[in-house]
Design brief:
CATH superfamily of the largest domain: Methylglyoxal synthase-like domain
CATH architecture of the largest domain: 3-Layer(aba) Sandwich
Number of domains: 3
Largest sheet: 6 strands, mixed
CATH topology of the largest domain: Rossmann fold
CATH class of the largest domain: Alpha Beta
Strand order of the largest sheet: 8-13-12-11-9-10
Length: 504
């Protein structure tokens, strides 16, 4: 037989049928190790690789396909000069390479911290075969995924064009790039720092109906299969949409950062309300009453078990998603009557070391904003002397919530609940006025927090007019003194955190 297809597959699914298709096209089968035995056992007239190379595998199979005869057969450009080398060393005319790699990701999850066992799951020969065949797509077809087999078997070999082979080549390079990036992620014990060669790999968890709008295609790619939304359990409801996932991520991030028992409401990736209390029922009641309008069609998240009582409170509200680490069985029974409501049980395992944003010509990557100064580190710089311990719960809630509100952001908290939030404004005074307007009379004596410094004294003026009890802001403006002077004039306690939390 003049032409050969080389088979070396970890996943044997569909390999017999594909090999038979090649035989039917009068293309011989070369196969290595376990793949050879599998094909022969199923009646495929395969030829063992070592009968071509004259070389038995060594190092317990670490080296079996790495041989000049094989790579000459794959990489030959079919020119007269290359054909002379092919004939000189007796290389076969390999026109197709069918390879899939060791399932490194799933093995990584199984072996845990056993690094040496994990190293054995790193494919060397398979990656090299794929790269060689993909590089020489003009003459070689490379197949890396069992999902490609049916498409291939529906054709005749004579109809496979160079354009078709290029399409398969591109998929092969993506496959190898994702494989290598996964290894880099798993082997790197320090995921936070950004390196000059920053890589990340995701496996499509599922396709989404569309993106932010119906005309935009979208998918959710999992990086850590057991972490975050990749590892979440959905009890009921429609499939999560792109916007559901984006909003839920903001809700889950905020509620996980809050002290005590907490409930939050998020709409369009902005907190609409957040509350902390001694029990989950009161926390949700406070959050609901803080903004009963924005909760309509929103996301609700809890950092503790959802009780049957809370479920009764939720069932009469139109919501998109409810998230919590646990649910009482009775709560799930109650919520099951709302067939379209998505109920997610979130795993404790988290994986979000970076934030990534595509821009024209590239992407921006940053470490996740996880630092947050505690209230006992705030420095009073103006206003009447004030013991912040008297308002520590409100101070914590205000500072944590403003971290998750889009800039410019102002959050007003009174009695363990956000009573006013101004977010996503193009200037700080508008954000302040929005938050204070929503707070209304509840602003009196409340804690006001800003995600960034005050470039002017106007926010302090508005805070004093609303009779705010305490103001928290990062400080660091060249005009800090203007705000400090106004704090002293109005006797409103002003604290600097030394830390800002822009969220664009």
């Amino acid at each position: 037989m003049g032409k050969w297809a080389l088979f070396s597959v970890s996943d044997k699914t569909g390999s017999v049928e594909l090999a038979q298709w090649f035989v039917d096209q009068e293309i011989g089968i070369l196969a290595s190790g376990g793949t050879y035995r599998h094909l022969v056992d199923h009646g495929i007239p395969a030829t063992p690789l070592e009968s071509i190379t004259g070389f038995e595998q060594v190092l317990d199979g670490r080296v079996k396909t790495l041989h000049p005869v094989i790579y000459t057969g794959i990489l030959s450009r079919r020119s007269l000069a290359d054909q002379a080398d092919v004939q000189k060393i007796g290389a076969p005319d390999i026109v197709a390479v069918v390879v899939n790699l060791y399932p490194f990701r799933s093995q990584a999850l199984k072996v845990g911290s056993d690094q040496q066992a994990l190293v054995e799951e790193i494919d060397i020969g398979g990656v090299s075969l794929i790269r060689a065949a993909a590089k020489n797509y003009s003459h070689v077809l490379v197949v890396v995924n069992p999902a490609q087999y049916d498409r291939l078997c529906s054709m005749r070999w004579a109809d496979i064009s160079e354009v078709y082979r290029l399409d398969f080549s591109a998929e092969a390079f993506r496959h190898v790039a994702a494989y290598d990036a996964t290894i880099a992620q798993v082997m790197d014990q320090h995921a936070q720092p950004l390196d000059a060669d920053w890589v990340v790999a995701g496996i499509e968890h599922r396709g989404l109906r569309y993106g932010e709008n119906p005309h935009q295609a979208a998918s959710f790619y999992a990086i850590e299969p057991k972490a975050g939304f990749a590892g979440a359990r959905q009890y009921q409801g429609k499939e999560l949409s792109y916007n559901n996932l984006a909003d839920s991520d903001a809700a889950w991030g905020l509620v996980q950062s809050l002290p005590g028992t907490a409930a939050v409401v998020v709409k369009h990736q902005n907190p609409a309300a957040a509350a902390v209390s001694d029990n989950v029922e009161q926390a949700f009641r406070l959050a609901y009453e803080a903004d009963p309008i924005s909760i309509f069609g929103g996301i609700v998240a809890f950092n503790t078990t959802v009780s049957a009582t809370v479920a009764e409170m939720l069932k009469d509200i139109f919501l998109e998603v409810v998230l919590a680490p646990r649910y009482q069985p009775k709560a799930l029974e109650i919520l099951s009557k709302k067939k379209n409501l998505r109920i997610l049980e979130m795993p404790l395992q988290s994986f979000k070391p970076w934030e990534v944003r595509m821009i024209n010509g590239g992407m921006l990557v940053q470490e996740r904003d996880q630092a947050i100064v505690t209230f006992d580190q705030f420095l009073q710089v103006g206003g009447q002397n004030f013991d912040l311990n008297l308002r520590k719960e409100d101070a914590r809630l205000a500072w944590a919530t403003v971290q998750w509100a889009k800039s410019n952001a102002i959050v007003v908290v009174q009695g363990g609940v956000t009573v006013g939030i101004g977010a996503g404004q193009t200037n700080r005074i508008d954000a302040a006025r929005q938050a204070l307007s929503r707070a209304g009379a509840k602003a009196e004596g409340a804690v006001l927090a800003s995600d960034a410094f005050f470039p002017f004294g106007d926010v302090m003026e508005e805070a004093a007019k609303a009779k705010i009890g305490v103001v928290i802001q990062p400080g660091g403006s060249q005009r800090d003194q203007e705000s400090i002077d106004l704090a002293n004039q109005t006797q409103v306690p002003l604290f600097f955190t030394g830390e800002r939390h822009f969220r664009h």
